[in-house]
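OP here, attaching both records as promised.
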Amino acid sequence: MTAFIPTFSQSVIVIKLITLLFRVYTLIRKRVAQRIILFKFLIDVNIFYKGGLLMKNSWKKVSLIAFIVIVLLIILYFGGISLFWNQP
């Protein structure tokens, strides 16, 4: 199987996607800074939901995990393209 060498336009698309994802991630981080407004409501929810997902520092973990998952999905998508790109 031959190695996949992306063209210039494909690399530009990947770079644009990564920058877009980073913007979304920073936007999530800014929204997290505003969570104090919602925190009284979330404490009420947390009384019923004991999973610990709504604890104070879990917002950073959740946004970071979401960012990593999206990046991995993009890598897998382009990896899947590369598998079928040079088929005869």
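Record two, same layout:
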Amino acid sequence: MYKLIKHILLAVTFTLLIGCSTNSSLDKVEPTQNSSTNTTYQKIINAINSKNLDLADNSYIDLKTESSNNHLIENAATNLAIAHIAKHENILANFYIQEALQKNPSSSVLRYMLIKNQFLAAAKNSYETSYMQKALQALKTNRQLINSYDYGLLADSMVTRVGLTIALNNQETSNLYKRLNKQSAAEFYKEKSQILGINSNDITRP
């Protein structure tokens, strides 16, 4: 059964890696009274399409200077976040997601994007337990702010994956101390590895 759980989680993770595809189509510029703003916005979109993210980033700064149109800035920031996630540039992606959330703090889509970005960043540091612990807390905090059922399920799967990784790290640490005949430390990490009601001995790295 645990192997089945593992396979399901792996399938979910793969889905999550492409999960923003439905939101990644770049928005067309919407009419505003400021033609300069329209031009700058379209410049961002064109730069993203041509994979020139340096130009897109610089143009975003210009857009914020020129415009107070919350929807336009939110769209630009969202598209830039998606582009940076695709390049595994999690710090920049996080910046743009936060920018978009400032304009639309109740958006479950943006909150899910934030969780997904945090999850992908955690995946690159999966052997660093302290980092993973902080990531898990951040995931749980942002999960509570998602009102959408569907996005909530996706977020829950990521919280579970990070939790399982922490459990596996602790189990491997316990096994190491056991081989070194340090039983007290081995028991300490073994207890920490019992998470989510699943025996960490039944978890293997993908």
